[in-house]
Amino acid sequence: MSKRFLRIADTLYHWVFPRVIEQDAETQTLLRNIYPTINWQKVRFYEGLPWFIAGSYVNAIVLPATWNRQYIHAYFAVYQPDTLAGLSTIIHEGFHVLQYQDLGKGIGFMRRFMVCYLADYFQLFFKNILKKGSQVANRIAYEKHPMEIPAYTQDRYFSQHCLRHKMRIPSTQLPSQLIHTHCGYSPQLAFPFLLMGFLMTLLFMLIKPFIEVFFLIIAAPMYVIGRIF
Fold it and tell me: Would you give the end-to-end CA distance of the chain in angstroms?
């Protein structure tokens, strides 16, 4: 019974707070050479998606730390740096980290990246929903998103480079097209959508910590019971 309580507590805890990934030296070196201006000491990688998008079509996402002004967390449904698809995804998410850094610090989820990302999504979504319906508008809002286009361009170019070199990529001999010191993003947002992005980010910033504390309150007694009995 004690093992069962500990297992439930551990599962619940890591559903809310996915496990930290200890990156291999080769992947670390590759990321640092592709994105040399990023402070990688402020970036943490996790295997497992955040609880609020678990089960969705998303296979990776970069989010701000809930309790910090600077840290950025990259989450992967499956972390596979030993495959071309997995490594390309890591490079893609690395570009989002660069966008976060370029757009500045914040408080928890209240980052300029979050506000602009949501605002751009809403702007594209509402532009297309009446003519094309919500499903197509949702796809367009993601595929044509000005923050996603360069990230996909980056991981596609990386994949092509890998295939040309049969996956043998000297991290110190990368083509200049792969190396980025700035993300190049310049917001082109109408005020109503910028306001929507701000309000959505503010709402999530305020609610998320309380929900996570609630899950911890549930998991803690199970852990204590499992340890005692």
Answer: 8
Instruction: Report the amino acid identity of residue 61.
Output: I
3-state secondary structure 28-86: HHHHHHHCCCCCHHHEEEEECCCCCCCCCCCCEEEEECCCCCCCEEEEECCCCCCCHHH
Q: Using CA of residue 53, residue 211, residue 23, residue 64, what is the dihedral sign? A: positive
Q: What are phi and psi of 174, to 5 degrees?
A: -90, 145
Instruction: Compute CA distances 193 → 62, 150, 180, 186, 188, whole Å.
Output: 22, 21, 29, 15, 10
- Calpha distance 176→73 (Å, rounded): 27
Edge-to-edge strands of the sheet including 19-20?
A: 19-20, 43-47, 72-76, 60-64
* Residue range 132-148, pLDDT digits in tens: 999 999 999 999 999 99
Structural contact between residues 96 and 103, judged by C-beta atoms closer than 8 angstroms: no
Average pLDDT along the chain: 89
Q: Which residues is 220 bridged to in the sheet? A: none
Q: What is the pTM of this model?
A: 0.91
Write down the domain spans for the chain.
2-228
Instruction: Tell the residue number behind the tokens 């408080």, with chain if given.
Output: 107
